[in-house]
Amino acid sequence: MIKQTIYEVRDYWRDNDLDRYYRILLLPETDEALNARMCAAFEAKFGDCSIMVIEGEAARQILTLYSLYEFTDKLLIGSFDLPNGRKLRNLLDSGIATEEELINDVLFKDMERMK
Question: In whole angstroms, how far apart are CA 111 and each of 17, 46, 88, 91?
Answer without folding.
Answer: 21, 11, 18, 21
